[in-house]
Amino acid sequence: MRLRSRLGTLDRRVFTAVAGARLPGLERLMPGLSRAADHSLLWAGVAGGCALSGHVSLRRAATRGMIAIGVASPTVNLVCKRLFGRSRPSLDGFPLARLIRVPTSTSFPSGHAASAAAFATAVAMEAPLLVTAPVALLAAAVCFSRVYTGVHYPGDVFAGAGIGMAAGVLTGRLWPVRHGEYIRETAPGTVINPAEDD
């Protein structure tokens, strides 16, 4: 019980430091990014770009990413939030310029963080580093935005991200991963592997 109290105190202190900070350039960027991730629209857009790339591995990554979100999102929003029922942070005294509409759902864990981590983890299982790295950075930025805009405690975000990562890994159990392949489609029914080119 004492450990739980200490963790709660630390969680609130970190929230106060992050949500109360004024970081040049992020006052408008973070709220916009946070809103873009509503209902996983941001990830659907990224998945669409991957699907249209012409690379089989990126299409697989896009599909795996959306499947992972399909596991993580209902787990968080329909099960975990109802079990824990944590209230949203109080925003009294925080910068008004970056505030976004506070969701009516409970705070723990973060659904945005779960979807972001689920998508990034799943994409990393199929896509090359050139794609995986920016997707991971975008997911991390979405997670940070949820604290910076004042709608989640850091603990909510870490818990949501953990669930999302687990959902991403779970897709590997349900659908085998093609390791080390970056295949480009050249004609209907024909693919080449760049690694085999002379």
UniProtKB/TrEMBL annotation:
Record GO cellular component, one term: plasma membrane
Stretches assigned to the Phosphatidic acid phosphatase type 2/haloperoxidase domain: 64-172
Upper lineage: Bacteria, Bacillati, Actinomycetota, Actinomycetes, Streptosporangiales
UniProt keyword annotation of Nuclease present: no
Keyword annotations of the record: Cell membrane, Hydrolase, Membrane, Transmembrane, Transmembrane helix
GO molecular function: hydrolase activity
Keyword presence, Transmembrane helix: yes
Domain of life: Bacteria
UniProt topology in membrane: Multi-pass membrane protein
Species this protein is from: Streptosporangium saharense
Subcellular location: Cell membrane
Protein name in UniProt: Membrane-associated phospholipid phosphatase
InterPro entries: PAP2/HPO, PAP2/HPO_sf
Main localization of the protein described in the UniProt heading: membrane
